[in-house]
Design brief:
Elements lengths: L1 H53 L2 H20 L2 H13 L8 H24 L5 H50 L4 H11 L3 H14 L4 H12 L2 H16 L3 H61 L1
């Protein structure tokens, strides 16, 4: 009987000891988890602060205003209009990181700002009411069309830059692939060694592929973002070679050769057009100066001879 009591007491003591040890371990684990969460939260806050500080000061200051400005056009304008503007901004390389709504707000702001400045200037001048109204009206039109013209110019200059860079990019891709690198590694080498609109778009292509987007879809999106015929032909050739299993090195070599030949033909065409373009400046500016230099003394002598008669 006494043995059973002692065994029960020992078992109870062992049970209580195990419970205490487990409870202590649970408390330590809870403290460790809380410290780990606090450390993770602090690290996230530090990363957020560093990310916020990496943004330029001008953008941080104008961000709240841009939110307010963006809200009204998004509610007032049709979605299809904003989509069309987004496409134009994408082809222009998103100048100023503007969204479609911000671009619309900028356009209407200029429509009000430029006529306002003209109106203030007219107050201190002697223009009639009709002339003042015409100036304000045309300045409003100017403020409406300036952003559109700027966007069109940015798109044209960006596409021209991409056309100029394409042969060099294809040459570097060809050399990299023939040296044994894969296509993605060759593109990474181009992004590392070159700078410009096309290498930046290729860098975005690599980021999309690293995030898990299929290469074919990434290349098609790249073709849509650039909308340059030569780049579209290059991407179509790469997609077809990938689909058929053709060696990418041969495709890149042919594309580089065609791109160089096309650039040479364009240079020859511009050289042939140069004499025609020079006719108007010659007639308006060069020939009159030559006539004055050559015929001026003779005309002076003729006038003196007639005056003495």
């Amino acid at each position: 009987m006494e043995l059973l009591i002692i065994t029960g007491l020992v078992a109870a003591a062992v049970f209580v000891l195990i419970v205490l040890v487990m409870e202590q371990g649970a408390k330590k684990r809870l403290v460790f988890e809380e410290r780990l969460k606090a450390y993770s939260l602090q690290e996230k806050m530090e990363n957020a602060i560093q990310e916020e500080l990496s943004v330029p000061l001008s953008e941080r200051l104008t961000r709240p205003l841009r939110r307010v400005v963006r809200a009204l056009p998004e509610r007032a304008m049709p979605a299809i209009t904003l989509e069309g503007l987004s496409t134009k901004l994408m082809l222009a390389g998103y100048p100023g990181n503007l969204t479609a709504a911000e671009f619309v707000a900028l356009r209407y702001s200029l429509m009000l700002l430029i006529p306002g400045i003209v109106f203030v200037l007219i107050l201190f001048s002697g223009y009639s009411l009709l002339h003042a109204g015409m100036l304000i009206f045309f300045s409003g039109l100017l403020g409406y069309f300036i952003p559109e013209l700027f966007l069109k110019k940015k798109r044209t200059s960006r596409q021209e830059e991409i056309r100029r860079q394409l042969p060099d990019v294809l040459d570097l891709l060809t050399v990299s692939v023939e040296a044994g690198l894969g296509f993605d590694a060759a593109v990474s080498k181009v992004v590392e060694k070159m700078d410009g609109a096309l290498p930046r778009e290729l860098g975005r292509l690599l980021q999309e592929i690293k995030m898990g987007k299929p290469r074919r879809e990434s290349l098609k999106d790249l073709r849509d973002r650039i909308a340059v015929e030569d780049v579209s032909n290059f991407i179509s050739a790469v997609l077809q070679a990938d689909h058929l299993g053709v060696g990418i090195g041969n495709v890149l070599r042919l594309q580089a050769s065609d791109s160089r030949e096309k650039r040479r033909r364009e240079a020859q065409e511009k050289a042939q057009k140069a004499p025609v373009k020079m006719v108007l400046p010659l007639v308006l500016f060069i020939f009159p100066a030559i006539f004055i230099v050559l015929l001026g003394p003779a005309m002076i002598n003729i006038i003196d001879a007639f005056s003495k008669m």
